[in-house]
Amino acid sequence: MKPTLLILAAGMGSRYGKLKQMDSFGPNGETIIEYSIYDAIAAGFGKLVFIVRDSFKSEFETYFRSKLDGKIEMEFVSQELDNIPENMTYNSERQKPWGTAHAIWVARHVINEPFGVINADDYYGVEAYGQLAKFLTTQKESGDFAVVAYYLRNTLSDHGTVNRGVCTLDGDGHLIDVKECVKIKRDTDGTISYPDEECAEVLSEDTLVSMNMWGFLPSYFGYCESMFVDFLTKEGMKLTSEFYIPTLIDYLIKNDILNVEVIDTESDWFGVTYQEDKPFVMEKITSLVHNGVYPSNLW
Q1: 178: in domain
Q2: Model's pTM, two decimal places?
Q3: What is the DSSP letter of 209?
Q4: Total Cβ atoms within 10 A of residue 156
Q5: For residue 140, is pLDDT > 80?
Q6: CA dihedral 225, 231, 232, 233 (to 10 degrees)
Q7: 191 inside domain
Q8: pLDDT per residue over 23-57, tens digit each?
Q9: CATH label of the domain that carries residue 243
Q10: Quick check: helix, strand or coil at residue 2?
């Protein structure tokens, strides 16, 4: 059975100023997601599940079906605030959904096979999809999860500081912890560091970091629902509380429920957060097309 790729595309682009997951970056107006899909199809993924919002679902589905019908199976699932387990309640004044772990949970009715997870507005690289597909096609239902971890040197920006989830591994290559480190930068002398309390913490070029590319099994949905019920019980009345993937992963690891394998990749990563990032991303894609990694017209 071919694995599925779940694409987190429900963000409303508040910092970007528009729906960045549908913005044009390629030479023929291609979105960043289309390069991810191209790589996923080549790696052997058999289905796409897009997590979107009702407000733009129709426009989004029309766009991607026009390009991809006949090339890969697709599902479009809305992440909405009221999609929660039975008998749970929340603050009626709340407006935003419940975060990335919840975004995956809403796809529980359309995924019955091992699946990968990515952000819609990030580019992960050809090699990463091949590595993730290989992991997913060798897992059993009772097996491990995985995170594709990038070498820090391949995720830095020339345009300012970055925030990264720094991974700690055990001797068997399993994830022990992910620490969110903020304002990481490369100094003029080449040193990579971030501020931590009163001093700068130095990081190695080869530090492994999570960029939100995961490998899961359908068992994710049961684990997630159990924790989500607990989350809603404690946090459901808050207006901005969010249930994140790392929160769930940390619980599963710390309670010895399963292992999370770390797949290290030499792929380059890049993404967009602000409008100012767009020229850089367009330049990177132009270079990849020029070097023959992608055809000038993907489809």
Answers
A1: no
A2: 0.91
A3: E
A4: 19
A5: no
A6: 110
A7: no
A8: 899 999 999 999 999 999 999 999 999 999 999 99
A9: 3.90.550.10
A10: coil
Residue 141 class from Cβ within 10 Å (0-12 exposed, 13-18 middle, 19+ buried)?
A: exposed
- Compute how many other C-beta atoms are within 10 angstroms of the C-beta atom of residue 54: 10
Q: Does a structural domain hold residue 270?
A: yes
Domain that holds residue 91: 4-150+209-290
* Structure tokens belonging to residue 253: 């690891």
Q: What percent of the chain has pLDDT over 70?
A: 97
Work out the number of other CB atoms within 10 angstroms of the CB of residue 291.
8
Tokens standing for residue 285: 């894609």
Residue 80 lies in a domain: yes
How many separate domains does the chain show? 1
CA distance 102 to 266: 30
Angle between helices 219-235 and 245-254 (to 10 degrees): 110
H or E segment and range at residue 116: strand 115-119
Q: 3-class DSSP state for residue 174?
A: strand
What mean pLDDT, rounded, does the chain reach?
Answer: 91
pLDDT tens, 274-285?
778 889 999 999
